[in-house]
Amino acid sequence: QVQLVESGGGLVQAGGSLRLTCAASGRTFSRYDVGWFRQAPGKEREFVARDTWTGGRYYADSVKGRFTISRDNAKNTVYLQMNSLKPEDTAVYYCAAGPAGTGTFDYWGQGTQVTVSS
Question: Which CA distances in Å does 91 have to 46, 75, 100, 110, 115?
């Protein structure tokens, strides 16, 4: 089992920055792929970014060049640095983890709200 707890959300003006943190506990974190997803009101949850245990990083087109995913395996922590935020980035952001190479995310955090004002 892996437990995930997100933090760092909040209210920010358009053009601003936030850094989300996901603290993991449980099994060896370094052998997991990790990702960030988000869900806006009235919309389905969507992929934001993924970091594989081999170091590969992937982003949704909508955030490419603005968001950066990273991890610190020694601290069992995943980060999402979000720059140049836009009102359409407003959503609940979720951290997720899954067995390396499977493409699935079995463990999810409770989410943290990000609100970007115009």
Answer: 10, 26, 27, 13, 7
